[in-house]
Every structure is written in structure tokens, then in C-alpha cells.
Specification:
Layout (H helix, E strand, L loop, with lengths): L1 E7 L2 E7 L29 H21 L2 H5 L6 H16 L2 E15 L2 E12 L7 E11 L6 E8 L14 E5 L2 E5 L8 H15 L8 E4 L3 H8 L11 E5 L10 E5 L1 H4 L4 H17 L8 H14 L5 H4 L1 H10 L18 H19 L1 H14 L2 H9 L3 H16 L1
Parallel strand pairs: 8-9, 9-11
Antiparallel strand pairs: 1-2, 3-4, 4-5, 5-6, 7-8, 10-11
Helix pairs in contact: 4-7, 7-8, 8-11, 10-11, 10-14, 11-12, 12-13
Length: 413
Amino acid sequence: MVLVAVVAGGVLLTTFSGDPTSGAGGEQDTPATSPASRGAGDEGLSESQRALAATRALIDLEQGVRTAREDVFDRAFAADPESAQAGDDIFTSLTRLPLSTYSMRYIGEVSHEADTWAADVSVQWGLRGVDRRAVTNEVEVTFTEEGPGDVARVVSMEAGSQEQTPIWLLGRLQTQQVGPALVLSLQSPLTEGVADQTRRAVRDVRRVLTGWDGGLVVVLPETSAQLEELLAADEGAYDSIAAVTASADGTSDPTAPVRVVLNPPVFLGLGAIAGQVVLSHEATHAATGATYRDMPLWLVEGFGDYVALAGEPVPLEVAAGQALDSVRESGPPDELPTEGDFSTEAHGLGASYEAAWLACRLIAQEYGQDTLLKFYRVVSRSGDVDAAFERVLGTTEEDFTDEWRDYLLELAE
């Protein structure tokens, strides 16, 4: 673990790195600031001294997590009850996670008043066995100067502006390992059934994607507001959505860790079968990297439902009732569902999902499931739908759309 302090233009830049899973014990040596370097009249710490003092506190936080020593972690927090409780909750959540890495880096001060200041801090953390690389979140930490010796203590920690909130900042976590998958819950106790549904989702996806390793993280917030914090989403953006698959850091990087986040009031209000279909659908997105692929949504969403419904005894009139009713009333759509049809504000959203599923179901019935999988993979790699229709299915999108429209009419009879 290395602490580098470089003073340039009066601003202290710090870099803090190391292997937080090495298990090394003992106290961390930290550089000291000479009292003689204080400003005239000893009127408090300079900005560079505040940065160094804060970095010392971050070292304690990091080492406390790395060694699972609550006393080391707690000494970084201010002694007032609210700050101490926040520290206890954060430590509990972090040490319940199967962390592969955890590190903190002081970025810079954003505000300062008397002996208290707020600073941006970069946090890197990853989950062992499921994350291909660490998640990077930016949080805002409020520090206060405490006692002699240029000591800083943490008053509070929250997500940075417009940043996704790491789940361990939202409350005491419940965690459950489900085979290769992991369930993270902010509900206590963990809601009955979600672990079983996660286990079944892994099985459903592996039935079609036989080479998938099953590395899945399912997140169950306590409220919809927490879901919005986890995704840095606008208020109400997911009110009608049962679950969403997204990168844990908000990027579209193919290596970014992915989470399936459930929307409690919607997801938990579904029946057992409907909830299973939703979770298996989202697990398919996670398994295929759908969060960063440039693909038509009819194929992404239709394939997700194809995998989810393949193992569920759901009658056609239930699985595709809205789409078939629409065909009976207005005839089949002129084109495959577009991106706009999948907007959370779109009229007939359920029918669009069902119509997309029926398009994938048609490919599997006419060409075979292996060909459907090959078609999906070719499109996901190249983004060239026309070429995939020609190379894999031996047809064109226009001719396939006509075949799909006839298929909808036939099913609606």
C-alpha cells in the first residue's frame, strides 16, 4: 500500500493504491504533517493538510475493510452518534460482501467551512467470482478536523452528484450466495423466494446458453427510491418496471460489472411464475452482455423472454395475450417492434414485448433453437441485422417480417 503526497500550487494530490485482499495485518504507517507547517496563527489546516489528513482517514477505512477490523474502520468516523451509526452500517455491509478488492482515493475538495470540508473520493470495489473488474464509484465524503495532530474524521458519506450510489451506502445489506449467483438485499430479512427465483433463473439461462458460468448479481432494494439511487435515475423513471439490468458504474464498457436490480413494489407484487419470467429474462440480459450491445431491441427483449419462457408452463394466451388481442382488434403490426415501442412511457408496452418474443419463438420453431442462438450472437457481435438475416436465416428482414405478421394472424385466430 503506497501513499504519495505531491504538493503543487498549494494543492495536495494523493494516490492511494494497494491490494485490499492481501490479508496483511498490523497498523498502517502514514506520513505525518509537521505542526510547523501550519498557517500563521495556527488558524486551522491548509487545503493540502486537509487532503493529507483525510487520506489518513481513508487508509483506516480501507484497512478496516481489508482486515475485517471494525475498530480500525470506526476510528475514521466522528464520534457523534449519527456518524458512528453510519460507520457501523457501512462496515457491516462491506464485510458481508465477498469483496475481491476495495480501495479509496482522495480526489479533491469541493467545499470548506470552518473545520469541516467535503471532498470527492473514488472508491473501487469488486465482488469475488462474479465481477470481471472492479466497480468505480465516486462518493462525496464530509470530513471534520478533530483534535491536535492534523487528524480528520469522517462525518458522512454519500454518492457524488449524478453518480450511482454503491449499494453498501444505502443500509445494512443481507447477502446470500446461490450457487454461482449472489443476492444482495436491503430488505431484512431477505424477501422469501428471491433466492429460489435466482437459482431458477441461472438454470433457465443455462438451459439455452449452455456455456454461461452463472455469474449473476441480483439486487433487491427496500424501496423504489433506492433503485433510483442505485441507477442514478430520475424520480419515477422505473415506476412501471419490475426489474432492470444495468452496469454497476453506469458505463457501457463491455467489462463493466452488471447487476439485475429489482423494483420492490412491482416485482414483489407479481405472482410466482410472472416474477420468475421477469428474473430469468433479466438474467439473460446479464449473461449475454445486452447492456452494452448495439442490437435491435426486438431481438434483445424477445430473446430474453424466449429464454425465460422456455422452461415455464405458460399458456400462449397468457404469455402473448396483449399482442394477440391487438392483432384481433387492429391487425398485425407493419414492422417489428422499434426502440420507441419499448419506452417505459409507450402505449402498448406489454404487447411490444410479447410481439418481440413471438418473433424469436418463430425463428426457433422454423429454424431451430441453435439457429436462433447463432442469429442472436452474430447480431450481438457485428450489429449488422441485415447480414445476420441473410447469412444465418437465408432471408431478409422484410421477408421475415411478412412471415412474422402471418404467424401473428395465425395465432390470433
